[in-house]
């Protein structure tokens, strides 16, 4: 098969469409003939050499994919050769085939094409696990989503609205603000010109930024507020006034989906299927696709993501 390999760490030009060995399904896994995959920021970090991979992880980028099951490993039940699926991956989605634990498979939701389904697993699993399972976001609470026009942000706004929350979101342009409002955001804050702390307090904050946002996030939390940090785009370290945390009885969580054990991922995927798939099928959550490119043009897709002008997900299709 062919896959996008990382020749050496660096810019988008290090991505190469190369002949590699086919994967085989281990016990509990299936192999998918990949129809499409989708970009995530982690792919860009992996390409720069900033995302150390756990032993056994596929060296090819790609945290999600869709396609048809072409091989089934020992002990897998409930899936058949030819089934159309999408899957949450630990890596390897930028390829013609990928092996994945059966617990990370999802059916393609009704009303979504096989190609578009590639862009659902990572964002829906990230948002559901953090908002519903970790932060326990409740009906009537106020949520701040940083980066509401991104792949994670567009899903977070809609899932939170479907859960009955009021949603405030930060965006980097008027065009992105307009799209975030169409998706249901109640308030948009342009992070280049406005201060998000002016629009709090927030019961829950989903933070993809880190760095100096830590102090401002905690400052704008409501009593018993929950801050969940899932991205570190602006830095790994920051000072924090602990008195604010203590007096508000606030909590700060940090999570990564990719490094969770397979059993945790299976639990998250099972909840996504139970709770988020119906939201997609009844139209309350729509997939926001910025554009679709051939998988062999992954370098161009990485350039687009790094330029930061996209809204929603960038999909890569296997021709
Ligand atoms: N921990 C996990 O399990 C997990 C899983 C998935 C993703 N993530 C993280 O989530 C983040 C988003 O991923 P993605 O795939 O959705 O990438 P993406 O589509 O490129 O989104 C990045 C977002 O960050 C926003 N942003 C950049 N600087 C900002 C600032 N100063 N203030 C507020 N927002 C800012 C951008 O807003 P504008 O475009 O409006 O400028 C954009 O919406 C990444 O950091 C990624 O690593 C973590």
UniProtKB/TrEMBL annotation:
<dbReference type="InterPro" id="IPR011032">
    <property type="entry name" value="GroES-like_sf"/>
</dbReference>
<keyword id="KW-0521">NADP</keyword>
<dbReference type="InterPro" id="IPR014189">
    <property type="entry name" value="Quinone_OxRdtase_PIG3"/>
</dbReference>
<protein>
    <submittedName>
        <fullName>NAD(P)H-quinone oxidoreductase</fullName>
    </submittedName>
</protein>
<dbReference type="InterPro" id="IPR002364">
    <property type="entry name" value="Quin_OxRdtase/zeta-crystal_CS"/>
</dbReference>
<dbReference type="GO" id="GO:0070402">
    <property type="term" value="F:NADPH binding"/>
</dbReference>
<keyword id="KW-0560">Oxidoreductase</keyword>
<dbReference type="GO" id="GO:0008270">
    <property type="term" value="F:zinc ion binding"/>
</dbReference>
<feature type="domain" description="Enoyl reductase (ER)">
    <location>
        <begin position="10"/>
        <end position="316"/>
    </location>
</feature>
<dbReference type="InterPro" id="IPR020843">
    <property type="entry name" value="ER"/>
</dbReference>
<dbReference type="InterPro" id="IPR013154">
    <property type="entry name" value="ADH-like_N"/>
</dbReference>
<dbReference type="InterPro" id="IPR036291">
    <property type="entry name" value="NAD(P)-bd_dom_sf"/>
</dbReference>
<dbReference type="Pfam" id="PF08240">
    <property type="entry name" value="ADH_N"/>
</dbReference>
<dbReference type="GO" id="GO:0016651">
    <property type="term" value="F:oxidoreductase activity, acting on NAD(P)H"/>
</dbReference>
<dbReference type="Pfam" id="PF13602">
    <property type="entry name" value="ADH_zinc_N_2"/>
</dbReference>
